[in-house]
Structures are given as C-alpha cells and as structure tokens.
Amino acid sequence: MTAPADVLRGMFEHHLWATGRLLEHLGTLSEGELDAAIPGTYGGILATLTHLIDADGRYLLRLEQPILPPYEDRGAVLLADLRRDLDDHAHRWSQALARLETGTLEAQIAAHEDYPEVPRAEGLLLAQAIHHGDDHRTQICSTLGALGLEVPDLDVWTFWASERSA
Asked: What is the CA 140 to chain-centroid distance, rounded?
C-alpha cells in the first residue's frame, strides 16, 4: 500500500524533475529565444523560470519563518545559477518532507497586506509550490510552442515512465 508521504514525495520529485528537464532544454536556446514572451504569460522564458525557482526558495524559507525578508525580482538569471539553486532546493524539499513525515514541520505565515495570518501553513505552502511550478512551466512551454520551438515533455506520465518504473 502506498503511504501518503510517498504520494507527496512523488509530487515533489516530479516538480523538481520537470523543472530540471525544462532547464536543460532551455540550454539549447539562443539568448533571443530565452527572452521571448507571449501575451498572457509571466514574461520572458528565462525570467519566468527564474521567477519559478526563486518562488520555490521563498516557499522553502516560509516553511522556516513566518515573515520573509524583502526580496527583489532578479529578472533573468543564468541557467547555470538556476541549476545550482534547483539542486539546493531538491535537498531542502527533501528535508522539509522528512520533517513533515516526522511531525516536526510547523510553518506559519504572518499577516500581510495581501493575505491573512495562516497558523498551520504547511499544506498551503506545499500545494502552492506544486501549483506555481506547473503554472509557470506551462507558460514557458506555451511560449516555446507559440514560437514554433520544440516543447519538452514534462508530464507526470513521462516522469513516471522514465524515473519511477525503471
């Protein structure tokens, strides 16, 4: 029988795998293609990926502290730097999920002008990380498709077939 913790770990494994696979794919694009954007998306391809990875860092930080320090949008960051950030996040997500499994993960979000206080915020932050990642990976893939460029297959079926069923 599959334990709930295994389901959640599988979701985060896919989240990290899909972001990593997208990052690798973007390494084949030109600078102009990385800057491309289409209406209805966050922005340029590289700026969107940077935003996705930076947001994951903020969600991870929120699992540790209720008030975040101010941050500045980094715009578009080099792919190699994003790879290092993603590798760091993989380790930190694994630690956070281990703490969740042992009952020692306790997160709260202090009230802010944009949202109320959330005393037990673990589920909110974990769900938001998965949703946010899917949303922005989809925007990047939509941009690639609109430009007539190859779109990597990032769905869960592909992940499961290549990473989980081997």
From this structure: 13
**Could you list the residue range(s) of the whole structural domain that residue 55 is in?**
4-164
pTM assigned to the model: 0.93
Contact criterion met (CB below 8 Å) for 14 and 156? yes
Residue 145 phi, psi (nearest 5): -65, -40
The CATH number for 80's domain is 1.20.120.450
Q: How many domains does the chain have?
A: 1
**Per-residue pLDDT tens for 5-61?**
899 999 999 999 999 999 999 999 999 999 999 999 999 999 999 999 999 999 999
What DSSP assignment string belongs to 45-92?
HHHHHHHHHHHHHHHHHHTT-SSPPP-----S--HHHHHHHHHHHHHH
Helix (H, G, I), strand (E, B) or coil at 28: coil
User: Are 117 and 109 spatial neighbours (Cβ–Cβ below 8 Å)?
Assistant: yes
**In whole angstroms, what is the distance from residue 40 CA to residue 43 CA?**
8
3-state SS class at 118: strand
3-state secondary structure of 112: strand
CA distance 92 to 114: 26
